[in-house]
Amino acid sequence: MKKVFPLISERHKPARVAEQVKGDVRKYLKRERKKKLAEEFDYWDFDCRTGKSANEAVSCHEKEIGKALDAALTGNWTEIYIEILSKQAKRGKEE
Asked: I need a surface site. Which of 31, 47, 52, 94 has the fewest CB within 10 A?
């Protein structure tokens, strides 16, 4: 998913818009995790980036997307770019 979410709405307060964006992100992650994995892989990993635009986006962990969204609200951004790319991954052996 590569998407620019507007943070300003005529109909909703900014906090409500942020909750809608967080809900969309959670739904996307849940949908991706339900996909069937190849036999040699253990789990779905996500490469995430957030920022004002695609050019200014920085890498973050999937659990930090909400914090980045809250920071965008306090920074009075008009929109936020969120990129989430899923990939299959395998856990390393514990020694």
From this structure: 94
3-state secondary structure of 70: helix
The rounded Cα 7 to chain-centroid distance in angstroms is: 15
Distance CA 68, CA 81 (A): 10
Task: Spell 53-72 as b/e; 16+ CB within 10 A means b.
Answer: eeeebeebebeebbebbeeb
What is the tens place of the pLDDT at every residue in 22-78?
999 999 999 999 999 999 999 999 999 999 999 999 999 999 999 999 999 999 999
Do the beta carbons of residue 89 and residue 44 sit within 8 Å? Answer: yes
Q: What predicted TM-score, i.e. pTM, was given to this entire model?
A: 0.89
3-state secondary structure of 35: coil
